[in-house]
Structures are given as C-alpha cells and as structure tokens.
Amino acid sequence: EVQLVESGGGLIQPGGSLRLSCAASGFTVRSNFMSWVRQTPEKGLEWLSVIYSRGGTYYADSVKGRFTISRDDSNNTVYLQMNSLTTEDTALYYCAREGDGAWFFDYWGQGTLVTVSS
Amino acid sequence: IQLTQFPSSLSASAGDRVTITCRASQGISSYLAWYQQKPGKAPKLLIYDASTLHSGVPSRFSGSGSGREFTLTISSLQPEDFATYYCQQLNSYPRTFGQGTKLEIK
Predict the structure, then answer these.
(1) Do residue A102 and residue B43 have CB atoms under 8 angstroms apart?
(2) Chain B interface disruption, residue of A67, A104, A108, most B CBs within 10 A
(3) Does A44 contact B97 at a Cβ distance shorter than 8 Å?
(4) How far is CA A93 from the centre of its chain?
C-alpha cells in the first residue's frame, strides 16, 4: 500500500529553521517526482518544490533561496529544509507523489502543520 | 501559469448536475488535473489529463477541455460529493492550483 507520512512541523519563531520529512512506503521515491505543497485558508494550495527522479530540483519563487528539497534513497524519505521562516510560511505542508511522466499527483500525505509566530 | 476557477462557491442539492470551470492564463494542452478535498483531509485525485478518470473515481465525475478552458462536471450529486474542488496545471513548473470551488448543500 502506498503511503506518505509527513513529520517535523511545529511552532517556530520568525527567522528560524525547520526540516520537514516525508516518509514513503509502498514505492520508491527515487523512481518518482516528489513535491511539497502547502495550504492556507487565505491562499489555498500552493506548490513549493519538486525533486525529480534524477535528483534535479525546482522551486516556487516564494521559497527559492530559503527552502531546500532533498531525499534519502536509503530511507525512502524526502525532506524540506526551511530557513528564514516568516509568518507567511504558516501553513499545512503536504508531500505528494507525481509519477515520472504521470502529470498528476496521485498520492498525498496527511500534512504537517507549521506555525511561525513569536 | 495562473488558474482561475469559477464559481468560487456553489450551492446545490443532491441529484443536481453541476459544472465547475477552470481557466488557464495560457495554453496548457491537456495537462490539467482535478482534485476533491474534504475538511481535514488531503486532496484526492479525481481526473487527470483533463478528462481521464482516476482509478476508483465514480463515473458521475467527468472532465473536459484543452488549451485554456476546462470543466469538471458531476452528473448527479451525491451527499459525499459536497467538498472543495481544485484544478491544477501540470504543463510546466511551477505547478499551480486554482483557488478552489466550495460545493455546499443547498
């Protein structure tokens, strides 16, 4: 069974850093494109970043230079390192699978909540 | 690429036929997906490639369109269909989503 489980969210002060994890089971992350998406009531769903099967990455302008996506193939886990956090980064963060050449996000995790507040 | 969904909210009754529209700021061929989201849950894939029903999705859901304008139609609303619906373009990065359409019970 395919499953994605995010963790690492929490309360963090502005300017701080946090690393989110997305543990995958039922498939191998290195064979797929893996994305991070966040959601707020105000902005809805916002795509943030992808790591391609070959390891390349791409970022939304809103997080470029602050967030870094990576993966650990041995642990079948994808990460999102978030630095220089602001209150605008408060959101529910999801990881999602986009199969290589699939052009859709077929599996999503349950989300992990990040709250940036002093 | 920006996606504009309309209406942003919709009231309907069980058994009704409803249509949601998603318009892209530039052509995206057929690289469009539709998702359903219920409160407290992650989005769930309904349709991809504009008109292909994802495995396990009831046939009352259908999608159409190409280029810049797309529609999601639910032919006969069931109680479990009241949710928020999002479109997403996968023609290019950054992947973008519409702002959502909240479907409520009349």
Answers:
(1) no
(2) A104
(3) yes
(4) 6
Q: Of how many residues is chain A composed?
A: 118
pLDDT above 80: residue B4? yes
Q: In angstroms, rounded to a whole number, what is the distance separating the alpha carbons of residues B17 and A50?
A: 36
Q: Can you spell out the DSSP letters for chain B?
A: --EEEE-SEEEE-TT--EEEEEEESS--TT-EEEEEE-TTS--EEEEETTTEEPTT--TTEEEEEETTEEEEEESS--GGG-SEEEEEE-SSSSPEE---EEEEE-
Interchain contact B3–A (C-beta under 8 A): no
pLDDT at res. A31: 93
Q: Is the pLDDT of residue A100 over 90?
A: no
What is the C-alpha separation between A81 and A20, in angstroms, rounded?
Answer: 6
DSSP A65-96: TTEEEEEETTTTEEEEEE-S--GGG-EEEEEE
